[in-house]
Structures are given as structure tokens and as C-alpha cells.
Amino acid sequence: MKTVWIIGGGWAGISAAVQGTELGLKVVLFEAKKDLGGRARTVKLPSMQIDNGQHILLGAYQETLALMRKVGLDPQALLHRHRLDLRGVDGRGFKLLGYSWLPSSVQFILGTLFCKGWSAADKFSLFSKALSWATSKFNCEPTLSVKDLSEGLTDHVQECLITPLCLAVFNTPPRDSSGQVFLRVLHDALFSGKDSSDLLIPKSDMGDLLPEAAHRWLISKGCEVRLAERINECPIPNTVTGSTQINNGVDAVILACDATSACSLIEPINSNWANQCRTLEHTHISTTYIQCDDTDFTQLARPILMLESDTGSSSKVTKPAQFVFDRGFLFKNNADQFKASTNKGVLSFVSSFSTISNELISEAVLNQAKNELKLRDIKVIGTISEKRATFCCTPGLIRPAQQITQRIWACGDYLEGPYPSTLEGAVISGKEVIKKMLNQSAQLSQ
Ligand SMILES: Cc1cc2nc3c(=O)[nH]c(=O)nc-3n(C[C@H](O)[C@H](O)[C@H](O)COP(=O)(O)OP(=O)(O)OC[C@H]3O[C@@H](n4cnc5c(N)ncnc54)[C@H](O)[C@@H]3O)c2cc1C
To answer: Does 320 sit in the ligand 1 pocket, CB within 6 Å?
Structure first.
């Protein structure tokens, strides 16, 4: 195993390329776009840079943080650490409490005990549910949904805690989200290491968070990075069958592209795998960037606020956004003063699984900002919608395997793995594929 072609330079492809290069492989990384990063990349507008979508990480995303460090970045300088806080504009709602050095589980108990606006029945229902999840070691039947898991919780706790957590992690409502995967994320966030439940919010563009530094690192280590090069046919790796040897100059191929591209590249080679990929459903995320020029406005009360959204209701959607982030607040100490100044007063509103047009979302979000945040003198910079932002991690879903043929592999957030469609899921998948591929190669050569 010497030369490996990786097709797709999102976070999964970057992770595989870094891991492979570090382990001595000759890696060639192909990316269809002009920049690395995939769905989590910087978008350059004439006057400023925004992200392809507002992202948030968790303290539990250990592999992502380790990858950032490996390519020479300091996560502390690039991510704003914020204790898990799901409070709305009025300050009501759930947040972890107590000293930050306390284990997250203790902060969770204190947060529940002193949660503003929750009744004794709400608190009791959450404590007993958390206890039952812990007793089952955060495992459940694979076919259960988050909604099923929440049975016994009061409606209020479901609305204020479970639904927003579910949206943040899966981008789908509780009834459509896998209970088993939810418990895994909950366990890693709340009941593993110190700081693992922290929200890590980018205080720089997504490109600064990994893709650009990874690009430099890869080139410095001899990896060939070929940007703006779309692969339209899956290359066939070198093979030896009996006395016949086919040499195409590549020992293995890793598809690190999105599920749709992987599906069409693999169709002629392994139609079962392609069919499994095709059955995956995807869901939208729209990010609306708003500029606030109100002279009275300095910053939001917190860098992230939960909003009252009516997405998912049967009536006409008038409040599509579930979260708002204050980029001015987050970017204010950015080392790049130009970025700090262009992001002053910029708010990003996240609307999950809303299928209305960009124009309607922009208009509705503008009204949400005026009515709920009481902002004046605001205008929309733009709305970016990703129709296939995340795959739907539904209950009982069996995800495609990483191995497609003996020498063709895949990595990406949608493949078999412990996490839903997230940066951490993508990074883990990239690292794992190299490990599995080299293990298999070692076994075959014995
Ligand atoms: C708006 C939005 C908000 C999100 N919010 C969060 C969040 O808050 N937290 C979180 O953890 N995750 C979030 N996600 C999910 C996260 O961005 C993805 O899980 C992750 O980026 C997926 O990485 P990937 O490498 O698996 O796939 P991708 O990023 O899709 O990368 C695939 C790459 O392959 C390239 N490619 C495709 N076909 C070809 C071809 N034929 N030849 C060459 N190159 C090709 C593509 O151009 C792309 O760069 C969000 C996603 C979106 C869109």
C-alpha cells in the first residue's frame, strides 16, 4: 500500500489525508471546488467572508480538536468556549451550573435543580429519565427514536431541552432522530470528561478552523493537493489476479465525497453499496446573515441564543430560525482586525429543516430579529441554504460500510460510525478509514 487517492476535500477527506500522510502513504487529494472544507468552508463575498453555514462544536469533539492541533492550530484561539446554555432571549431555559472544574454530570444536576421556569415535575421527570439512561449505560434498542426515549419527560422539558439538543446534534426533530446515536452524544457530552459538554463556537471563518492550515500542512509533508479537480469516474486501483497485473498508478482509492457523488462514482463497481447510499435521506439548513447598524446595539446577551421557532408546526412558518449567533461578539478579538471589523454587528440565524425559499426565509428571519430580539436598523446580508446539509440519522438506520471493494474505501459523515452528521463524525470517519485500510493490507501481506 503506497499511493492512495482521496476524492473529496471536506473534513473527512482532510482527516484521512492527514492521517495517511503521517503514516507514510503517498496521498493525492482531489477536491472539486477551489478550496478545501466541503460543507464547512468559508464563502468569499465581495465585501466580507461568511461561512457556508453557521457551525458549532462540542467539547466532546476530541478527534476534531486533535486534528486541529496536529496541523498547527490552537483550538483555544479559534473557538469560543461557552458552557452548555440553551436559554432563550428572556434568560429562561436550561443551562449547566456550578464551577467549570466540576464534572459535567454535577453541573447537569445543578442546572436541572436551579433551572428558571421549570416546575418540580419538570425537574423530577428529567432526573428520573437521566438515571434510567445512565442505568442502561446509554444504550437502547436501535429502532427507538429520541421521541420514544423522551417518554415520561414533561412536555416542557421536551420542548426546552430535548428538541433543541436534538436539532443542534441531528438537524431533525426528535421523532425522526435515532435514540441510540442521541444517547451516545449525550454520554460523550455530559457524562465523560471535564469540559466535554462545552459549546465551542467558531470565532473565525470555517476556513481558518481547519481547511487552510491542513492544506499548508499537507503540502509541507509532500501530499499532492489538487483543487478544482472533479473526478467523474472512479479510478480502478492496481490489482493482481493470478498472473495478470493491472497497474494504474494507484494502490487504493478513498471516496471522501458526499453521499450523492459517492453513489454515482460507485454505481458501476458495486451497485449494492450505491443503492444503500441512495436510500439515505437528507435535510436542509439555512443560515441567514443579518447586519445590525443600530447605534444602540453593542452585542447580544450571550453569543448564542435560542429563538422561539415554529418550524415543524403545521401552519405557515413565520419564525424559521431556532438559534442566533452573534458574530460581532465572537469575532471581536480576532487576530485579523479586518475580520473583526467586517463582522461587527453581524448575526447569523440558523433555520433547520425549513424548506421555504431563501427569499421567504430572509424576510421571516428579519421579522424574527425585529420582534423577538427588538433589533432596529437591520438588513439581510444573505441567506445560504444547503439542501443536503446533513443526512437524516433516523431510528434503526443502517449506514453504508467504509469498505466498498478490496481497494476502494469511503469516508464521510454519512458512513457507519458512532456520530450523526457532524464535523466530529466526518473527522472520525477519515481517521478510521486509514486505520482499517492499513490493517487489511497488513493482514493480506502476511
Ligand atoms: C449549514 C450547515 C450547518 C452545519 N452545522 C453543523 C454544526 O453546527 N456542527 C457540526 O458538527 N456539523 C454541522 N454540519 C455538518 C458538517 O458540516 C458535515 O457533517 C461535515 O462538513 C461533512 O464533512 P464530509 O467531509 O463528510 O463531507 P463534505 O463536507 O460534503 O465534503 C465532501 C467534499 O467532496 C467534494 N467532492 C464531491 N464530489 C467530488 C468529486 N467527484 N471529485 C472531487 N471532489 C468531490 C465536495 O466538493 C466536498 O468538498 C453542518 C452542515 C451544514 C451544511
So the answer is: no
**Per-residue pLDDT reduced to its tens digit, 390-423:** 999 999 999 999 999 999 999 999 999 999 999 9
Q: pLDDT tens, 259-280?
A: 999 999 999 999 999 999 999 9
State the closest ligand 1 atom to the C-alpha of 424, by its place in the atom list counted from 1.
Answer: 11
**Binding site membership of 257 for ligand 1 (Cβ less than 6 Å):** yes
> pTM for this structure?
0.95
Residues contacting residue 399 through CB under 8 Å, at least 6 positions apart? 280, 414, 415, 416, 417
Q: Is 432 in the pocket of ligand 1 (CB under 6 A)?
A: no
In 3-state terms, the chain is what percent helix, strand and coil (to 5)? 35, 20, 45
Calculate what percentage of the chain has a pLDDT beyond 70. 98
For residue 422, the CA-to-ligand 1 centroid distance in Å is 9
Verify whether ligand 1 is closer than 6 Å to residue 55 (CB atom): yes
Where are the chain's structural domains? 3-76+204-280+398-445, 84-197, 282-391
Contacts of 81 (CB under 8 A, 6+ apart): 59, 195, 198, 199, 200
Ligand 1 contacts CB of residue 13 (under 6 A)? yes
Extract the runs of DSSP E, i.e. beta strands, from 3-78.
3-7, 26-30, 42-44, 49-51, 57-58
Q: Look at the domain 3-76+204-280+398-445 and name its fold.
A: FAD/NAD(P)-binding domain (3.50.50)
Q: Classify domain 282-391 at the CATH topology level.
A: Alpha-Beta Plaits (3.30.70)
Q: Tell me whether residue 180 is exposed, middle or buried, using C-beta atoms within 10 angstroms of its C-beta: 0 to 12, 13 to 18, 19 or more.
A: buried
Q: Is the CB of 51 under 6 A from ligand 1?
A: no
Q: 25: closest CA among 437, 444, 446?
A: 437
Residue 219's CB: how many other CB atoms inside 10 A? 11
Pocket lining: 202 vs ligand 1, CB cutoff 6 Å? no
- Our answer on whether the CB atom of 288 is closer than 6 Å to any ligand 1 atom is no
Nearest CA to ligand 1 atom 51: 389
CA of 171 to the centre of ligand 1 (A): 14
Written as one letter, the residue type at 57 is L
Q: Is 353's C-beta closer than 6 angstroms to any atom of ligand 1?
A: no
Ligand 1, pocket-test mutation among 15, 36, 39, 199, most atoms within 8 A of CB? 39
Burial 323-362 (b: 16+ CB within 10 A, else e): bbbbbbbbbeebeeeebbebbbbbbbbbbbbbebeeebbb
